[in-house]
Amino acid sequence: MRRQKAFYPAKRSMNLYYKPDRTTKPATVSLYMLFALVCLLGLSRPLVYDLCAETAAAQQTLAAAEEELSEILLELGDYSQVQERYLRYSLTDEEKALVDRIEVLGLLDEAVGATADMESISISGDTVQLQFYDVPLTETSRIIRALEDSPLVAEITVNTALTRDETPPEVVAPVQVSILIHLQKEAAE
């Protein structure tokens, strides 16, 4: 086997074309400066203009909030009067400890109102003074039991049970009853 000679490329002509470097000329420098200016202008929108617009919007919001605050502070100038009215219509700690008067009146109406004529009701603190009439003694005891069964009632004291007119003892006559009821808060379930 014969060995062939290796072929290597060779340059057989000369290139005389020479391109001069123009990167140092004023036109090229100005072109680079123009490119940098365009980049800065492009970045100025998100970096400067948008931030200025957000700042202006935030200042307007702040001005509106300060104006609203000043209006509210003017309205609160009579705070002591508003507080006095609030305290007048809200329950004090002492009143919160008392039994609800509407519940007491509902209880009395349910137990007494259907069968007897109520003459007077006086509620003071945790005591109720009740007077009713035109009920026989048997019905009076049923009313007392119904009141005692209520969770609002702690204790009942019957002060008097009198007949209004002079009737013989063998006749069942209506009586006038005066009772004192001590109230308690219902047990929380």
Describe the structure.
There is one protein chain. The N and C termini lie far apart (115 Å). The model has no long low-confidence stretch (mean pLDDT 81). β1 and β2 (127-135) form a beta hairpin. The chain contains five helices and four strands, in the order ααααββαββ. It has 189 residues and is α+β, with helices and mostly antiparallel strands. The chain has a four-stranded antiparallel beta sheet.
Summarize the structure.
With 189 residues, the protein is α+β, with helices and mostly antiparallel strands. 48% of the residues lie in helices and 20% in strands.
Write the topology of this structure.
Elements: H1 26-75, H2 79-89, H3 93-97, H4 101-113, E1 117-124, E2 127-135, H5 137-148, E3 153-163, E4 175-183
Antiparallel strand pairs: 1-2, 2-4, 3-4
Distance between the termini: 115 Å
Per DSSP, what share of the residues sits in E-state strands of 2 or more residues?
15-25%
Spatial arrangement of strands, main beta sheet: 1-2-4-3
Mean pLDDT, rounded to whole units?
81
Top keywords for this entry?
189 residues, alpha+beta, four-stranded antiparallel beta sheet, 5 helices, 4 strands
